[in-house]
Amino acid sequence: MKAKIIFTFIFSACFFMLAFAQDAKSADGSHFLVDFGKFSPPIREMAQSFEGRPAEQFMASDITGKEHFLGDYKGKKVILWFWSKDEILSNGHISALNATQKHNEDLVILSFARGSKSDVKTFAEANNVEFVVIPNADVFGQMAYAADLGYPRYFFIDEFGIIKQVWPAESFQEGVNPYNAIADMLVKI
After folding, report:
1. What separation in angstroms does the CA of 49 have from each of 46, 80, 166, 189?
2. CATH number of the domain to which 90 belongs
3. Dist. CA 130–CA 102, nearest whole Å
4. Which of 186, 159, 170, 161 is nearest to 33 (CA)?
5. Alpha-carbon span 63 to 131, nearest angstrom
């Protein structure tokens, strides 16, 4: 009887982990994992509480001074990416998002970088960031987009302005290129 309970527990745990994992291939053909199953219950619940809801509207100026209103992008898929130039994981996402932007004409990437406008602008220029960068991410993160989800974090929004998927910082392992996971998500929304 005890062995049956242990087997059931192990089987259930494996099934649960597989149900919340997304597998994708990187450019070199190797696999990486965006592991949704490893979230702590509060993080999982917070991320899921956004999904299916309309995205919170905002207007913000990017590092060039151009204003962006989220409502102006209805009809396009939007990625909101919250990041910090001081986080190793964030730095690894820049090339993936640059490539994603190049291969998706109807996609808007609005990134919210943690830090002052001058610091973020210097960093973005030095690292060839090719998508919109809005400084002072903490303001938007704390108000509407859950700073508790960590850096980096993604919000995938469909062309109707509905948040379809949220990836907290825990989604990505260090040194992982998220390009294919993002591309796969864009096909689904």
Report:
1. 5, 16, 9, 17
2. 3.40.30.10
3. 9
4. 170
5. 11
Burial 98-110 (b: 16+ CB within 10 A, else e): bbbbeebeebbbb
pTM of the model: 0.77
pLDDT tens digit string along 102-159?
A: 999 899 999 999 999 999 999 999 999 999 999 988 877 777 888 888 888 999 999 9
Q: Residue length, the chain? A: 189
* Integer angstrom CA distances of residue 12 from 18, 44, 171: 10, 18, 21
For 21-85, give the DSSP string.
Answer: EEEEE-TTS-EEEEEGGGS-HHHHHHHHHHTTSBPPP-EEE-TTS-EEEGGGGTTSEEEEEEEET
Q: Give the three-class secondary structure for 134.
A: strand
Domain count, the chain: 1
Which domain covers residue 162, as residue numbers? 2-188
